[in-house]
Amino acid sequence: MRGFTRRLVAVAAAASCATVVVSAPAQAHGNDKYAKVAYFTQWGIYGRDFQLADVQNSGGAAKLTHLNYAFGPVTADGVCASADPWADWQTPFSAENSVDGVADVAGQPISGNLNQIAELKKKNPKLKALISLGGWSGSAYFSDAVLTDASRKKLVSSCIDLWIKGNLTGLPEGVAAGILDGIDLDWEWPASSGNDGNIIRPEDKQNFTLLCAEFRTQLDKLSRKTKKKYLLTAFVPAAPAKIDVGFEVKKIFKYLDFATVQGYDFHGTWEPKANQQSALRVPAGAPDNPDFSVENTINHWIKGGAPKKKLILGVPYYGQGWTGITSSVNNGLFQTATGPAPGVFANGTEDYKTLKKLTTQGFSVHRDIRNGHAWLFDGKTFWTYDDPAVVFQKALYIRAKGLGGAMMWSLDGDDERASLTKSISAGLS
């Protein structure tokens, strides 16, 4: 087992350091057998200073098949809107921050992230881009918006008009047409709790299916006009209870091209004990029974009737952290903490690119290779996270299980060499 661990780490490290020829990205996409889906956050261009140019220049874009742009909210009026038009289509980018290396100029038809996505697709012709609707803080009004046939038609029509037909407020008609290739539904969560204030109804379960059907109908209608296929995907939960109450599993996959499955946030600092947040299998000695794991989640979706090839496993590019641990038993795993560990942007969470540096600051890496998770511990502070070795192991799990690929939340958490993205891609090549 120790020999296998060393080989796994070595292979993942080699994959993350592999040389990528960015000038020929079309070859990198090839005829991909597996989907490699990654989220780019709209707000990341601000405080995080993470641009789509970084996705290109790191070599990460050449390793992806799909880019999900997050997020577009559903409003109280039951329509799609932009959460930030400045970021989406107004802000000008400098040459340094532009995918094509050319600065935006006054008077050009469209600027912002959408124009950068268009530039990214020119560099990577096989890459598909989708708008993700909802998200944790943008799902409050889904339930109202899908309550009737008329309201569903209204919502879907508005989403397609804005994001797919590209009719952006204040700009010429159709200026963004062709930039986005589909819709990703990130309703968190139908018929069960999500962010505080979300409207929830028992009939959300059936209405989510009807929403998928309406999107498929209207997208297919547009396809017949444009001769282009439009994708429909969804982000779905890990918890069996949320799956059962919110999804007609067999029905929704008649309309979805695939679903990305939450493979993280199994545990976090809302709990008092340091724990895994994204393990492949439940570790020995886990304090909760039943407990969350990738395998338990995937098996529940399959048992419910989800086609394996339409299940895309989500992996985190961030970690969950606790501090105030006084016991070194299990190298901190399952030990009681006093609270969340300090983080750059929020206490209790931290990007992989920051966590990787902790090994030079007194932290040791610990692995449970059998159950597929890793953590950092310095005797007081504990971080559960995925590094290149863990995500490579998950890629091998995806292949062995017959799943459709991997999804990554989110690109801004990776390091400047796109080490995690490259490791996943190597495992799925």
TrEMBL record:
Protein family: Belongs to the glycosyl hydrolase 18 family.
Entry-linked InterPro entries: Chitinase_II/V-like_cat (IPR011583), Chitinase_insertion_sf (IPR029070), GH (IPR017853), Glyco_hydro18_cat (IPR001223), Glyco_hydro_18_chit_AS (IPR001579), Glycosyl_Hydrlase_18 (IPR050314)
GO BP terms: carbohydrate metabolic process; chitin catabolic process
Domain GH18: 34-429
This enzyme's EC code(s): 3.2.1.14
PROSITE patterns, sorted: GH18_1, GH18_2
Catalytic activity: Random endo-hydrolysis of N-acetyl-beta-D-glucosaminide (1->4)-beta-linkages in chitin and chitodextrins
Domain of life: Bacteria
Entry keywords, A to Z: Carbohydrate metabolism, Chitin degradation, Glycosidase, Hydrolase, Polysaccharide degradation, Signal
Span of the signal peptide: 1-28
GO MF entries: chitin binding; endochitinase activity
Name the UniProt record assigns to this protein: chitinase
